[in-house]
Backbone:
């Protein structure tokens, strides 16, 4: 991809890319930490822009949302896989640890 | 105080509270989820109203957003941003998706896009407090074109190509103005924390 792709961070942060471009840019973020960091920062600004538009929703919505959550299963947490061999390396060389000499 | 007293805005100092609340939601605590709803529902519904306009569709979007939050809370990674940013990102994404589903249904009715731009309604209840003043002040720091680009993309849910068409400017210009406008907004807002 050309260097021009970096310029899409703003439009990406505002959900203003068409689906194909958004998909491409999402892939680009995997390999471009600078863009990923920039998107994070720009989203933080966008979030503050959005949050001040607050309008209290109709009270009935609260019960509907809470009831729907009760019926919905939560996703499992993301588990970072341990690098191969890390299990053995993380143990102290002597186990149990030697008693402190008195 | 009127309806405004019901509004609770999440400020920077509340970040830890909201992050902690989301961690409890991740463990399936429905009470924490109810509290999270009480803190964030006005912001989520507000942005949905701005983007989709129709109150009952905005309610649907809000419900989708909170179910997303409930479902995905265990996968939330605080290293990639605050709970508030995460929630508002989901809210905007869902609102834009709802609008684009409708737009693709009437793809060839280009006039509908243009007709909607001129009257930018003010939200029914806009929070009038220091956060609102800060955001308003920082929007004033943008150039007219930057502001227009950010407004049309964020609040009207347009793609940058649509913004370029509406404003009759080259794609590259709009892409750049959205980015540098947002960067300027961010720099200004970070200074107000």
Residues:
């Amino acid at each position: 991809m050309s260097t021009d792709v970096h310029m899409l961070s703003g439009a990406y942060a505002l959900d203003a890319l068409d689906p194909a471009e958004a998909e491409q840019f999402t892939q680009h973020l995997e390999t471009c930490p600078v863009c990923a960091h920039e998107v994070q920062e720009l989203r933080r600004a966008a979030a503050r822009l959005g949050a001040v538009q607050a309008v209290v929703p109709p009270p009935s919505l609260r019960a509907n949302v809470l009831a729907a959550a009760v019926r919905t299963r939560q996703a499992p947490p993301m588990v970072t896989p341990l690098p191969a061999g890390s299990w053995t390396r993380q143990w102290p060389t002597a186990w149990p640890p030697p008693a402190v000499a008195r | 105080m009127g309806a405004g007293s019901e509004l609770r805005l999440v400020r920077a100092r509340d970040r830890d509270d909201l992050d902690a609340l989301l961690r409890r939601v991740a463990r399936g605590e429905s009470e924490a989820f109810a509290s999270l709803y009480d803190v964030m529902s006005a912001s989520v519904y507000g942005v949905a109203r701005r983007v989709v306009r129709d109150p009952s569709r905005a309610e649907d979007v809000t419900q989708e957003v909170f179910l997303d939050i409930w479902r995905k809370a265990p996968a939330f990674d605080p290293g990639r941003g605050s709970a508030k940013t995460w929630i508002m990102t989901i809210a905007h994404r869902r609102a834009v998706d709802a609008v684009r589903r409708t737009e693709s249904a009437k793809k060839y009715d280009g006039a509908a896009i243009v007709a909607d731009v001129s009257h930018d309604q003010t939200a029914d209840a806009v929070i009038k407090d220091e956060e609102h003043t800060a955001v308003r002040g920082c929007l004033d720091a943008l150039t007219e074109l930057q502001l227009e680009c950010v407004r049309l993309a964020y609040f009207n849910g347009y793609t940058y190509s649509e913004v370029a068409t509406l404003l009759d400017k080259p794609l590259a210009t709009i892409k750049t103005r959205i980015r540098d406008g947002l960067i300027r907004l961010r720099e200004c807002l970070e200074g107000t924390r």
Summary: Chain A has five helices and no strands. Chain A touches chain B through 46 residues (CB under 8 Å). The helical segments of chain A are 9-13, 19-31, 33-51, 60-70, 86-90.
